[in-house]
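User: We ran a pulldown and think these components assemble together. Before we commit to crystallization trials, I'd like a predicted model of the whole complex to look at. Sequences follow.
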Amino acid sequence: MSDMVRGDTRNPLTELRRGVLEHCVLAVVSDGESYAFDIVRVLASAGELVTSEGTIYPLLSRLRRDQLVTTTWRESNAGPPRRYYRITEDGRRALDAFAVDWARFRDAVDALLAGGPGRGETGGR
Amino acid sequence: MDFDIVWLLVPFAGIIVAVFLAVRLARRRS
Amino acid sequence: MDGDGIVRDYLARLEAAAWPLQPGRRAELADEVGEHIEAALVEAGRRDVATVRNVLERLGRPEEIVASEVESDAPPPTWSGVAPASTPRPSAWGPLEITSILLLTFGMFVVPFFGPILGLALAWASTRWTTREKLVATLLFIVIFGLPVLGLMAVTSGGSSPAPG
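Assistant: Here's a predicted model for the assembly, 320 residues in total across the polymer chains.
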């Protein structure tokens, strides 16, 4: 879908969130299994990561499709059976690669924002 | 015959035009 | 409308908004979102209108969720936040264009005299040159080829004796 409809691309963080979010989900399920609602809760409580909680579900679907996570249905005493998500080997590799790239990216942006090389001590304007 | 020169001019013209069009097309990729 | 009514309404809107999705995924998404709402309300311990509205607000508009689903089918933005160029730009060099150029250059040896002219005709048929470029090309051809010929014709018909062949 080349002309993607993006309702709120005025905010640069929107684009950023979308790309980063799937790796955040991978991080959440990397040390054990979790069900969807729980994953959403963890992400929401981590900070300004999720503007629309419902969009996590398409994301989970894509992670399943790309086989970065596997799922197991488990009976739940709180109601119907729940789908538990767990990271795969491919998912772990993707997460590790992301962690490296993200650290570099984050450091570079932080340095520039803080008035790094070439920007001078007084920073921007 | 003079008109043998036609056999030179046509390919000559063709090459010039080909170069022109090719350059145009090459620029289009940028 | 009570809380449950609002939930039903929301799910109906989600179903309607989800028309671009495959039926299987549509149903699955409806289930997932439905379970989410249920779990959120259980966690909140209440099902009154205000609580429901909060839950649905955090969930986001059905259209947004479906948009996110549809986007998932397309290549995602690279994680650095920049979406890649939407479609790979098609190369300007198609078979028609290549043939045209080749005929113009070597067409003389393929079909004497008409080869290059055929190449020019093919250039006109292409969509990858503008009409202006085609006109310039044609004029170039006519001028480079035609003027000397006309000149020769004028000279020879001028009465001077033809040069020995």
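Helices of chain C lie at 3-17, 23-44, 49-59, 62-73, 95-110, 114-125, 131-157. That may be worth checking against your pulldown data before setting up trials.

User: Thanks, that helps.
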